Amino acid sequence: MKWSSIPGCQVDVPVVLRGLLDPEAAETAERALDWLVMSGPLSISAVMPAVVPYLLRLAADPSIPRRNELVGLLLVAAALSAPTDPDNAWDLAVSGPEKDHPERAQCRAAFAADAAWVQRLLADDELRADPYLDDEDRASFAQAAGL
Length: 147
Prior knowledge:
Strand order of the largest sheet: 1-2
Largest sheet: 2 strands, antiparallel
Number of helices: 9
Helix content: 55-70%
Radius of gyration: 15 Å
Number of strands: 2
Shape: globular
Structural class: mainly alpha
């Protein structure tokens, strides 16, 4: 698959994202991407909102190498971008206040802007049959996209 054949993907993308298309480089590219999009074990980095549109498009294609891992990364992005409840001390202790983490709102905005791609993933028969994607995961996707 050529990068330019993916709808909405710009020509000048980082090599790590292009590497996700190459069966021989996909595992290394996916691991490198993990390091870029996560700023800690329970927090996304400022890079995550920028790559969500690309990951949604890639994850929608069953022929993409390491598709399940990309879906998993999107699930992490959806879950970790959920708004923090300011009245919940545990939530604040784990995630911190929203004002300190603008990347979460930006990530939700990226999911919402590409809600059609999220719906496509949610409707994908192969992904729906995967026991790894439970109802809570699907709800997390839907919430992140504002569906």
